[in-house]
Amino acid sequence: MQKTAILLIHCPDRRGLVAAIADFLLSHNANILHADQHQDGESMLFLMRVEWDLSDFKLDLARFGMEFSPIAERYQMDWRLETSSPFPKLAIFVSRQDHCLADLLYRHRGGELACDIPLVISNHAEAAPIADFYRIPFHHIPMATGQAQEVELRQMEILDRHRIDAVVLARYMQILSPRFVARYPRRILNVHHSFLPAFSGARPYHRAFDRGVKLIGATSHYVTETLDDGPIIEQDVARISHRDQLEDLIQKGRDLEKMVLSRAVRWHIEHRILVYGNKTVIFD
């Protein structure tokens, strides 16, 4: 696989930004493969993703920050550098409903998700057969009343031992503590079974059915300390009619959940998401 570097930038919008970035990369013999940019006119922000082939790149990536800092300081850039390899390590958390887990593991085995998945963690045992089928180690850690802190300590010890880069909540029906969230800023991805901000929290399909909605949705987002309020990555909807019962909403919603979560995971591991404020830009 071709090894590439990815530079993600946001900063105040000014003339000459694209030229300064391109000139810097070309001065070190970068072969730019993809470049995408966006101007947020309301916030007067410039956002960019640029990816280049590292085969003939003359600058050691360990020195990239030192060499790039004069440009970054001049334009007040908030930036980060990523590479396409080694693959990031993802841990998947799941509860009883395993449809999102099964979809992610299937896509991973098929090569759609360029990452490593060294483990699955669950507070229930129902998903163990799926993890076993894909030969992924399964950690069953029951969540008894009053044991949330102890369970999270065990979870974090496992994640640290495997050097996990990001956590995917594939219908993991537990609220993470602020301490846990703070350990993985913008690296915990969740799927919520509603079109946020509508019907946040528990039992959204039941509340949507009681409300008589004509559309249901699903949302993938980064997790923050505030429940279901993190930066939104992807959403999708399906039309509902008066003939649909609660079970129909749940079934249609499951398909949406799988799609929006798998897209979010793929965009995250390909470093296509740039967060600013409580918004995201998804670069093509």
Secondary-structure map with pairings?
Elements: E1 4-12, H1 17-27, E2 31-40, E3 45-53, H2 64-74, E4 78-83, E5 89-94, H3 99-109, E6 116-122, H4 128-133, E7 138-140, H5 148-161, E8 166-169, H6 178-183, E9 188-192, H7 204-211, E10 215-222, E11 232-239, H8 246-269, E12 273-276, E13 279-282
Helix pairs in contact: 3-8
Q: Helix proportion of residues, in percent?
A: 25-40%
> Which structural class do the helices and strands define?
alpha/beta
Number of helices: 8
Which segments are poorly predicted (pLDDT under 50) over 5 or more consecutive residues? Answer: none
Shape call? globular
- Termini separation (Å)? 20 Å
Mean pLDDT: 95
- The side-by-side strand order for the widest beta sheet comes to 7-6-5-8-9-10-11
Order of helices and strands: EHEEHEEHEHEHEHEHEEHEE
- Specify Rg, calculated over alpha carbons: 21 Å
**Would you report the number of β strands?**
13
- Biggest sheet overview: 7 strands, mixed
Quote the beta fraction: 25-35%
